[in-house]
Amino acid sequence: MVKTSKTLAIRQVETGDREFLLRWRNDPRTRKNSRNEEPILPAEHNKWFETLFGNHHSLQLIGIDGAGKPLGQVRFDMDSRSECAEVSISVAPEERGKGLGKKLLSLACGYIFKKTSVKTLKAAVKKGNGASVKLFKGFGFHELKEEDKSGLVYFEYRKQEK
Prior knowledge:
Blueprint: E1 2-3, E2 9-12, H1 18-25, H2 28-32, H3 42-51, E3 58-64, E4 70-79, E5 84-91, H4 100-115, E6 120-126, H5 130-139, E7 142-145, E8 152-158
Parallel strand pairs: 5-6
Antiparallel strand pairs: 1-2, 2-3, 3-4, 4-5, 6-8, 7-8
């Protein structure tokens, strides 16, 4: 676990996270801002969830408070050939609007850059998802191209070398 404050830490996904992740994934606002807006069936979620363990191309992190309560999630889908990963983030529905997104993204980016060979992060955001556009731009992601025919806007962030 990585901690930077008394109120937020991150950890890798655990088997006990299955149910709340399904609830978060099926939240109406989350579905509206996802590539596929259809609700996720439990069997489909369970199959996806099992792939998270032992998968070297995906990293699922959970943001937690000081008491261990899950607050949000960040997933990185990695392409080892290009040292690149696509990032996806969501904050628990009941925790939105509290400024957790940027803190969670910061912890997760620090983690992936420290623990893997990833040097570039990409994000695909629905144009109407103002909260995510603001989050990625505010963190320093650069817009790569305008909305495409699928309604997505693409962003990129490169690891800051010291």
